[in-house]
Amino acid sequence: MQKIRSSEITPEHVYLSRRRFMRLGALALGSTALTACGGQLGETLAGRPAPAAPTKPADAAADTLGIRRDEFGDPANSFETISTYNNYYEFTEDKEGVAKLAANFKAEPWKVTVGGLVSNPRTYDIDDLRRKFDQEERIYRLRCVEGWSMVIPWIGFPLHKLLAEVQPKAEAKYVRFESLLDPNQYPNQRPLSLYPWPYTEGLRLDEAMHDLTLMVTGLYGKPLPNSNGAPLRLAVPWKYGFKSIKAIVKIELTAEQPKTLWNTLAPHEYGFYSNVNPQRPHPRWSQATERRIGESGRRPTLMFNGYADRVAGLYAGMDLQANY
Ligand SMILES: Nc1nc2c(c(=O)[nH]1)N[C@H]1C(S)=C(S)[C@@H](COP(=O)(O)O)O[C@H]1N2
Ligand SMILES: [Mo]
């Protein structure tokens, strides 16, 4: 796999408010954490050359597996790249360090509870989910809010099939997702961690019901690697990658918009909706372009990450430039 220089990405972690730092002032924060976070300028602000025409195919290693392409014709990144370049903060903030730390993660047995405002609350074993719902391949783009992207051949089933089974009540308006809390397995969930664990995310019910919204159980036809959120994660391809929560243990239907980890940490940087929008810069960097991992140069970012024809209607009447 091609080595990815850390200078080529703009970390989304850790925006931490000054107040939070003061409160935790005694904590010996590594200086890396500080500089890696707030200190760095966005890729596009760092005096880089204008976007160059990307070279294709994205990833030489993809050839050996037979190239899969997304619906826009872009080749998928290799299994190697997808499973070794990760954002998974429960393990580490180092993208290339996740796979090693996650090697012994215990992804089975695994239970997922689905409850809240539903008529038929259920607890599923991961195997129940694999057996019960047809597993299909969906080759989606993943656009991280930091300004890089990949093409990933996921295996999974649409979330709406699961929701149909538990039957949301009329009052249910949102879906809340929760990741595993287990400091014994996640080194970065140590006591006094600066993150409000567990990782949580949320969708409006109609977003959750959209056919593009996928419950992911695998990639490249194999069970999901630990580094990608085994055994169960979400893929919401028109939103920034942090919405696609990993290692899900709980799904809850709610009447109110749920709190989410990134929105709690830095509400002015990471909105609840966080739809990919090249015209709306992150407060610290532009979102107009992205670096496809494996390509040279940058390519333009597309509205809703290219899925506008199918999802724009969900936001009719909403101001897309606002920070929701
Ligand atoms: N539980 C959990 N889910 C998570 C994250 C995380 O740190 N913890 N990182 C998010 C971010 S920022 C991105 S870009 C994607 C990365 O997914 P990948 O590593 O499979 O490419 O996972 C998202 N889901
Ligand atoms: Mo991300």
From TrEMBL:
Top EC category: oxidoreductase
Reactions performed catalytically: L-methionyl-[protein] + a quinone + H2O = L-methionyl-(R)-S-oxide-[protein] + a quinol; L-methionyl-[protein] + a quinone + H2O = L-methionyl-(S)-S-oxide-[protein] + a quinol
Domain of life of the native organism: Bacteria
InterPro entries, sorted: MsrP, OxRdtase_Mopterin-bd_dom, OxRdtase_Mopterin-bd_sf, TAT_signal
Keywords: Metal-binding, Molybdenum, Oxidoreductase, Signal
UniProt entry tagged with the keyword ATP-binding: no
Cofactor comment: Binds 1 Mo-molybdopterin (Mo-MPT) cofactor per subunit.
One Pfam entry name: Oxidored_molyb
Binding site for Mo-molybdopterin: N86, Y89, E90, C144, S179, N228, R233, S244, I245, K246
Name under which the protein is recorded: Protein-methionine-sulfoxide reductase catalytic subunit MsrP
Organism lineage string: Bacteria, Bacillati, Chloroflexota, Candidatus Thermofontia, Candidatus Thermofonsia Clade 3
